[in-house]
Write a structure and sequence with these properties.
The chain is an all-alpha fold. It has 20 helices and no strands.
């Protein structure tokens, strides 16, 4: 039987070096992945992106404070993990407006129930707490939670604001209210639905105190209407303020299928302040408008084709996104070249 030659000192040294190099590579590689994954596991990481900063601020003011973005927005764990590693390193060079690789998926029902399952364990208890038909059938409900809870986490401050808004057709058109609640349940926010005049006569001071009299005067009522009732006891005619009448006209357009494509840009250009009575800020506009429209096509050919899209630099279709100076900045350069 042939004996193996003894391992020489240089060979042992080389083996130790190779093992050391492999170990070092594994440690560095692990840290190169682990550090980004730990850093991106907190919602604070995403506050560095311009388009996500407001959502982060709202999240920190909500009941979901401290919950990581992936807990709700996870879709493909492996792919998302790799994407976040890439975003971590690219953000070191400059965060930009939004993550380059990571895509936020809509919160799924499973993601919500991973935390809230205990809330719905007792069927009788959940209906007592929140008497809503969808909660009564939560076990068989097929819709995603966020179809109704649209404002959860990032827009909870908006929820407080929207309670002061008068109930209208928009509330129904957007699926928030489907006529299943009784007027008593809606009364705290939508007192205009209450038909019992005598009850409102005694209860409205508490609403005014809670909401503030400016809310009443800005949204629906005039001082003269208050004075008429408080000095004579006669119920005044509520014909509506000009702002209320104007808002109702906008609401009629909101429910049209072609609202987004045909109407909303022109209405916003007429009076942006009307939009901001319901929408928190122009950041909500940016979430759509900062995405390149499909009809623009390739960036390589758009400059040559864009003249065919409009013959007028004041075209509302262009000015919904671009300021007139945007056109001039480019066209002036070509005039100088000519």
């Amino acid at each position: 039987m042939t004996e193996l030659p003894p391992v020489t000192a240089p060979a042992r040294r080389m083996r130790r070096i190779i093992i050391g190099i492999v170990t070092a590579v594994l440690i560095v590689s692990s840290l190169a992945v682990a550090v980004p994954l730990m850093a991106t596991s907190t919602s604070g990481f995403f506050s560095r992106y311009h388009l996500l900063e407001r959502r982060y601020v709202n999240l920190e003011d909500s009941a979901h404070e401290g919950i990581g973005c992936r807990s709700c927005h996870e879709t493909e764990p492996l792919a998302n993990g790799l994407a976040l590693v890439g975003d971590y390193y690219t953000s070191l060079l400059g965060a930009g407006k939004e993550p380059r690789y990571f895509t936020f998926g809509p919160p799924t029902r499973a993601a919500c129930m991973s935390c809230h399952e205990d809330d719905w364990a007792d069927a009788a208890g959940r209906v007592d707490r929140i008497p809503h038909p969808a909660h009564a059938r939560v076990a068989s409900e097929e819709r995603e939670c966020v179809q109704c809870h649209k404002w959860t986490a990032h827009f909870e401050p908006y929820m407080e604001k929207h309670k002061a808004m008068p109930f209208s057709g928009v509330c129904v058109a957007y699926g928030c209210h489907v006529g299943t609640k009784t007027t008593e349940e809606c009364f705290d926010c939508h007192h205009v639905l209450h038909e019992a005049g005598e009850q409102w006569r005694t209860e409205h001071p508490a609403v005014v105190k809670a909401r503030g009299e400016n809310t009443c005067l800005e949204s629906c009522h005039q001082v003269a209407q208050c004075q008429t009732c408080h000095t004579t006891g006669v119920r005044p005619e509520f014909t509506g303020l000009p702002i209320e009448i104007g808002m109702k006209e906008i609401e009629k357009l909101h429910v049209k299928p072609e609202w987004t494509a045909e109407y909303h840009g022109a209405e916003a250009l007429k009076n942006e302040a009307n939009c901001l009575r319901c929408h928190e800020s122009v950041d909500e506009c940016d979430e759509c408008h900062l995405q390149r429209p499909a009809f623009h096509g390739s960036t390589e050919t758009w400059i040559g084709r864009h003249a065919k899209s409009t013959e007028d630099v004041s075209d509302p279709g262009c000015l919904s996104c671009h300021e007139s100076a945007y056109c001039q900045d480019c066209h002036d350069q070509f005039e100088e070249m000519g």
